[in-house]
Amino acid sequence: MSQVTCHKSEERIWVIYFLILVFCLSGFNSFAEDVKEPNVAGAFYPSDPVILAAQVDGFLAKADPQPFEGKIFALISPHAGYEFSGAVSGFGYKLIKDQPYKTIVILAPSHQYAFRGVSVYTGTAFRTPLGDIPVDSEISKKLLGRDPEISFEPRAFLKEHALEVQLPFLQRALKDFKIVAIVLGDCGFSTCQHLANLLRENISSREDVLVVASTDMYHGHDYSEAINFDSLTLSAIKDMDPEKLYNGLKAGNFQLCGGYGVVTALLLANDLGYKKINVLKYTDSAQVTGNKTKGNWTVGYSSVAIGQEKKEVGMLNKDQRKKLLGIARKSIESYLKHGKKPDLNESDSLLSKEMGSFVTLHEAGQLRGCIGNMVGTQPLYLTVRDMAIEAATGDPRFSPVKLSELKNIEMEISVLSPLEKVDSAEKIELGKHGVIVRRGFNSGVFLPQVATETGWTKDEFLSHLCSQKAGLSPNAWKDKSTEIFIFTAEVFSEKDY
Q1: What whole-number distance in Å separates Cα of residue 319 and Cα of residue 201?
Q2: H/E/C letters for each residue in 270-282?
Q3: For position 488, what pLDDT does the model report?
Q4: Are the C-beta atoms of 151 and 144 separated by less than 8 Å?
Q5: What is the SS3 assignment for 116?
Q6: Is the pTM higher than 0.70?
Q7: In whole angstroms, what is the distance from residue 392 CA to residue 403 CA?
């Protein structure tokens, strides 16, 4: 019996040894951190969350990028230590701050591990001192199994900083987002194209995806050479010609340590129709440190935004919208100074049509007044004049606006379509339709943007409308005796222009 027991013990030991051997021989390919711990916290950026948040917030506050009129689809952002490139990064992240992006695709180079192809992270999250960022597993998994050069290679992430340094900026600029973490090794142009194709398949129908290509520029010992190289490289990027950029990188005519990620971002942007590109900020380490001595190590940094021109949707063009906003502001100013409505004349035929309109005032992001006329009884430009004055002085929820306040108040105008009576709440599209409920002498209205701003469900939207605005029971909208009207609104504000 004892002999048998001994044999079984030895057998178990050999099984354990065998499993350890298999694990060791398999290397890191079978191993990955479920939550990726930071690699360079305390080195490239502070490890203390309070200090880190304050530093990033400082970069965002000081950045003064040229406004980007339109949707931003991609950023090109540097990845050096924050003391060198953080201020430049702030320019791009300032423009996308508080935008409703839900998935961020990060394309970063591999500095520490040489490999061929692309590695897509399959763990659950990335950790920084500011907290954990979940991985968009749905998209990440769909990128795998379609191309032998696009896989999960854990060693690409073990020591890499280029992807990681983007994360605290994203955490301070955005809320409630996931990431697709991609590290690119040595790639042929066809691999970049395949990756762009796979990404396009998964994001083309979405408006809430941002691409971040992480890259520094010139690396060398000559400040003058850095300026010349980076000027040529930025010019090539602005051409939005990914193949030209790729070939120039291979030939040594341009320098981008994250060049394959930038090429992929340009391929994807072109495929999806994002053709507008703005260089927001450029500098290099010599300018940051003040040491431009020849022989001093110098690295270039740039922040670039890629997107599309702002689409003018609806009946009013840009000039007509700006004219109405100007009328609203000047009318309030004139009334507060002189106590009477200004005399106005307008030759534009569209602005002279009888149309309903609301004027909404905001101060420091908070509602300061909102009054409107649902059915146009006079020319639109006069309706805007009158409703602007009423919003400033006649909204019973607020004290009248003072002349000294006016400079801090933002004008928003909603031009309304004719009312359409509907027989069912099912025909209401939240975010598109404004709604009026009416029963007898009681009525209330919500503009379309109320649903977007509150995040309410349709039931919540209608219940609040009935109870808060119409003085009815919350469920009155379900009663057949309650009339429901829908309309659309063309909404624009001074911040748009």
Answers
A1: 37
A2: HHCCCCEEEEEEE
A3: 87
A4: yes
A5: strand
A6: no
A7: 10
